[in-house]
Amino acid sequence: MVQADIVASRDRLDSGELRKAFGCFATGVTIVTAYDADGRPRGMTANSFTSVSLDPPLILVCVATAAPIWSVLAEAPGFAVNVLSEHQQDISQRFATPVPDKFAGTAWREPAMPGGPILADVAAHLVCRRERHVEVGDHMLLIGEVLDFARSPSRPLIFHQGAYRAVA
């Protein structure tokens, strides 16, 4: 296939149908948090999260470049990934919408190491140092080195085909 064929095929993709195809992959739900330049907590819901390496301990989160938190995460020296528990659907929805103070009414604490806020009652949290970020398409691949983490016996919140699900 020549390059022109690849471009022509890409032009025919239906983005709505592609989104549905992507949604066939069940994911956990996370909230990525960081502090902005003024020290205010910021956060966003993300399901594009994966482990990358155990040695060194690295993770990756994908963030849309159009997201308001994009510039915060691109500059912050650290961040946290909060893996939501199955009972935290309301928090997931709040952090996915453009409300002025997403942390209002949400229990959280400062991390022991430089990073982002740690939300209460999560299935797990990972405090990370920003290793690097790479802009790809309309997203930023944010890579972090895990400095600290904890997990709980809670079951994770799952997202599949546009809806929240429970682990069976």
Overview of this protein structure:
With 168 residues, this protein is α+β, with helices and mostly antiparallel strands. The chain has one domain: Electron Transport, Fmn-binding Protein, Chain A (Pnp Oxidase, Chain A). It has four helices and twelve strands; from the N terminus they run H-H-E-E-E-E-E-H-E-H-E-E-E-E-E-E. The chain has helices spanning 3-11, 15-22, 70-75, 89-95, and strands at 27-28, 30-35, 41-46, 49-54, 57-64, 78-83, 108-109, 118-119, 124-136, 139-151, 158-160, 163-165. The strands form three sheets. It has a seven-stranded antiparallel beta sheet. The chain has a three-stranded antiparallel beta sheet with strand order 1-11-12, with no helix packed on it. Strand 2 (30-35) and strand 3 form a beta hairpin. The chain is globular. The chain starts with a helix and ends with a strand.
Looking across the biggest beta sheet, what order are the strands in? 3-2-6-9-10-5-4
For the record, the CATH class is Mainly Beta
What is the tally of helical segments? 4
Task: Classify the oligomer.
Answer: single chain
Q: Can you tell me the number of structural domains? A: 1
Q: What's the Cα radius of gyration?
A: 17 Å
Overall strand count: 12
What does the overall shape look like?
A: globular
The stretches of 5 or more residues where confidence is low (pLDDT under 50) are none
CATH architecture: Roll
What is the CATH superfamily? Answer: Electron Transport, Fmn-binding Protein, Chain A
What does the average pLDDT come to?
91
Q: Main beta sheet, described?
A: 7 strands, antiparallel
Secondary structure category: alpha+beta
